[in-house]
Amino acid sequence: MKRFVKDNGLTLFFVAILLLALAGQSFAGMAEFNSQQLASGQEAVSYGHYLLSSDFAVDVAENWQSEFLQFTLYIVATVYLVQRGSSESKEPGSQGLESDEEQKVGPYADPDSARWAKAGGWRLAVYSWSLTLVMVTIFPLSWLAQSIAGRAAYNAQQLSQYSEPVSWLGYLGSSDFWSRTLQNWQSEFLAVASMAIFAVYLRQRGSPESKPVGSAHTTTGQEG
Question: Are 57 and 50 contacting, i.e. CB atoms less than 8 angstroms apart?
Fold first, then answer.
């Protein structure tokens, strides 16, 4: 168990704070929701009821879809684009998918490489893009979840104000849907752009996300 925790500490740490953040969001969200319920003359709901509500679901899904979009774009963009001096980038001139020898696939695979990395044909093609394929699958599913939960929450508000509910397609074209979506996208793009350029000039000793402290600003792709 100690070995497992030590070897997977980074993942376990972020899963733990994810659950804590979700719990905090659920309690804060319920308090806000019930405050609005009481202000409009309606009954407060229980914690369990709020966890299953569209209001909670849309708030979670809109954050998740933007995160997976961020990583999808970042993974693919770093194949073809570079940022000179950044530890987050490949060396200028190495853009592209690289050779089989550089990627250690097929006849160039290491003895302990994954079996599909040693294979050819469709298995190697799928495995070569497996990370992007997973992200590309999760992003639209979470975005779909946001649209479904968002429509339900939006229509509940519409009905409480004696207004007409909207269809799913109608909600996709609404300002509520795009406001929720774009406010998350812009924050993700800002974070990635900031990390790419900050890593050129700033350092964090001991972190693989940073160059070694003494590296020149123009050194690219080197990890500390």
Answer: no
